[in-house]
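User: Show me a protein chain along with its predicted structure.
Assistant: Here is one chain, sequence first, then structure tokens.
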Amino acid sequence: MDKLSAFPITQRWKPKNSDILQLFGCPTPNGMKPMIALEELGIDYEYHHIDISKDETFTPEFESLNPNGKIPAIIDPDGPDGEPIGMFESNAILIYLADKKNALIPQNIRERLECTSWLFFQAAHIGPFMGNLGYFYKYAGREIEDPRPVERFAKESERLLNVLEKRLDGREWIMGDQYTIADISMAGWIGGVISWYEAGPIVGWDKLSAVPAWLERNQQRPAMQRLRERAAG
């Protein structure tokens, strides 16, 4: 019996190779996180595109893996005990993958906890505020005449960028010399604010120096090049 057959999601999105990690997602800021980590770590994986425009995350098959109906989610046939494991929530997946290879996260306990704090900073602040900024500035929220939603989320996004600007002053990466899952967790969101939402003018992007340089370093990493080639091919 296929060792992934116990996961109902595989009945709709069938693995071609059930011996490698299965990734269910799409290229959103959260969806890109495990893709980047998997490329960085050199873990073989099979990608299943989930069409969020068609609400495929809210199907019974997908919700069997993530009850919250959000991408990304994974099934690793080689879990911690050698048995398959399913996971959801992008930052939880990042921690799992980093621990699997003992990479992309500090091994010193104090530095590890500091890195984890920055992951929660992204999950609690960067993602929600910048996501809402995109909605109200570029998407359906633009139909709302009240300017206060855009003003609120732009102001807070600018503040968060300045928090990161101070952190990166004199540092190559969020944790210093080591590129970690903290960087992975934020790069897609911040890049999206500038390139996809085109919100740079309202979040003070031209006043920053450390953050734009850090974002460029993220985008130039070989793993990102491989993902661009994968998308193009």
